[in-house]
Amino acid sequence: MAVADQVPTDSGFPAKTDGAVVIADIDLAGKTAIVTGGYSGIGLETVRALAAKGVKVVVPVRSPEKAADALGGIDGDVASAPMDLGDLASVRRFANEMTRALDRLDLLINNAGIMANPETRVGPGWESQFGTNHMGHFALTLGLMPLIEKTPGARVVALSSTAHKISDIRWDDIQFESGEYDKWQAYGQAKTANALFANALNRRMRDAGGLAFAVHPGGIFTPLQRHLPHEEQVALGWLNEDGSPSELAKAGFKTPEQGCSTTLWAATSPKLDGKPGVYCEDCDIAAPTDPENPMARYRGVDAHACSDESAERLWAVSEGLLAEV
Asked: How much is the pTM?
């Protein structure tokens, strides 16, 4: 695929549609899903909506106590198992456990992530946002491929972000080993990596009939902002000085229930059949970024996040990094 493949479908769902509405007419009974980050924010609402439709949902959890509190009130078949995306041994244990315990995996929703945190390292010294948001999910997906490949029509959804516009992959210094760490550049690179991952994964799912998509869920107040001080959120235009949502946030931000809608649309919509690897936003395929649009920073997808060549290059780099651990 390429940026030219980014053609909206006129899905019929407005940007601020609740996720449950998006899947109201989709038959999901008997399907199985894994949702990372499924016990807070939009991940929790994704789990709630899927479980209500009869999907068996497994949530990998880093904090079992917090997960039990969050998931305990959901009606449906929801289970959890320990996993930390920043700990590859735990990722591999989880994938192996799921491969033994499940007989199918219809939906893998790589929802979890961290944003704009202070410089930290995970795994063998990887920059934490790239290591958690991309490499952790890369390792998880590879570990689950036996399940994905044997499930007809399986879909993988990778949560990206409009922040992909901040940075392409820093091919010469992915881990910020020589350059000065910039938390937003690191986040932008990780979100570009998520989009490129979906692109490359499609070619590896093609023979089994599966599909993968990247999703920008929109602006939502969730625990994702936990590393941003109040002053920075004011400077970004998200909050007023008194801590209330700004007019910009009121107009553009979504509720968590609305924030899961594009994920659920990408996971289930028949309008995406035959459209592998596209980047979606606002319950539809995103159009290419229009530089003349004053909202270009927040709308559309940049060409660097849709490049087949970059996607394959990142896949090779990621395989090499995993091989070293």
From this structure: 0.91
